[in-house]
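Slides due. Your pick:
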Amino acid sequence: MATSPIDNTHDTPTPSIDPPLEPDDRTETIPAVSGRLGSAVNKISPVFAFGFLLAMGILIFEIFMRHVFNSPTLWAHETTTFLSAVGFVFGGLYCASKDKHIRVVILYDIAGPKLRKALDVGISIVCMIASGFFAWAAWLMVKRATMTPAGDIHFETTGSAFNAPYPGILKVFLLLTLIVLMVQFFWQAINYMRSAPITGSEQNE
């Protein structure tokens, strides 16, 4: 008597396959409107992120030296303040390159594609002009912080026992960052003008 083969397919569990992960902020790329400048800013950003880790390490070292060996350093506090300040200054440029600066979106969200494009261009131009004014103010500070009344180059120092030239260096860095920020907003305005109007669904993506 012939028998049919045993079908064991129902006894074998089917492995479940997880859906692909959606990209998050950690894998987000630089928007096209930021261009090559935005990509360059993004590439050097780990250097400034490492500065925060270095500042934390210096603080831990200072706590260890102060409370274990009773031998506090002269440079730890000023150095960590300088590294943190540099990181925060660069953070503004980094947010602009990612097109993630703070906006009031009450009108932006209800605007149509053409008006939204006009707002993008207008916001970029306003931010560019504001960055230019801040850069001019920073240049006035840099002249006082890097030059003596006689015209000699001398960086402003902290005035402490360590007396590091951190204030002068930080003001120069602030000036350079504001200049790059102004250029970044300029290119964003140009690229927004060239781009097609963005619909609400594309904006949410």
Q: What stands out?
A: Residues 32-199 form one domain. The mean pLDDT is 83. The CA atoms of residues 6 and 12 lie 13 Å apart. The chain has six helices and no strands.
